[in-house]
Design a protein that fits this description.
By secondary structure, the protein is an all-beta fold. The chain is built from no helices and 20 strands.
Amino acid sequence: MSNRSWEKFHDELIRREEATGLPERFFDRFVFNVHPTDATAPSILVGLGLHPVQDTVDGFAILTTRTEQRNVRFATELSATDPGTCGPFAYQVVEPNQSWHLSLTDNPTGLAFDLRWEARTPAWWGDIDVTNNSGELTSFSHLFQSGFVRGSISIDGAEQQVERWYSQRDRSRGVRTMAGGQGLHIWYQAQFDDRSIGFLLVETRDGGRILLEGAVMHTDGTLDEVVDVRHDLVFDDQLDLKAGRVQVTTASGAVYPVDTDASAGGGYMAGGGYGGHHGKAFGRDHLESDVYPLDGSVTQRTLDSSLTDRLCSFDWQGRPGSGIFEFALTRSPSYAYRPTLT
């Protein structure tokens, strides 16, 4: 992997006329998380992906309140939709690596929004090449970046204006087949007033490291690459994260011990189609929705994916923060979580 953070990531999604000679599993995808800076509900996740060889574009929106998670998933034929749209969702790259416009109109979740995303830190990005246990090659470009959003959000017809809510974005493009042999997956985005700690960590079932990438992204423009991550996390018997500490070490020698409160609930990415549904051909104008009550009846063990994007509050040696702690433990009975921070 080479970290080319000082360059500009090609932020625009691929155009249909450019999609020739690509691998069958090629994708071009983005996800945005939106939430108040104090980590209170609501938590909003929205994403969209292009799958040119399958002639498919699909997306999702997830709204997590204090009592439930509402999901809507939509898909259509890439050749039959206007660029920058899919179902009730539309986006525009206003200024690459700096500003996006996102909108969601009427849909079964009762959530609608019109938001302008603006970068508050530089983006970290790099190229990832991993050979999986199956022999398949994972090769994709991956970016994450912290920003603010402003605009309007409506929930069940009640509209509110938002200003400078936190929003983390993730961009990826290429071929990703990270399946088989994984034990722990973490995508971590902890937002503090003057910096964002972001990394992706993947471990094997015996605790070995498959992948680590990321950086501490400062609002003054500094990027400090992450070189090591240790963790001591608390999971319940349903594989849900409750609390714990992550210790991040950077290339400059800085060490960040950050404590997590993950008790808010929700953020189950199965609601966004992460159980293997992305890129499937559903035809034109497909839309489906469901609701997960946050009463313990829906868990990482009952869904078709254990991947969870949890809105969390963080504490870095007395400095408060908030953001997304994405995690997944394998459901294989041969695996038991092993802390690496002692």
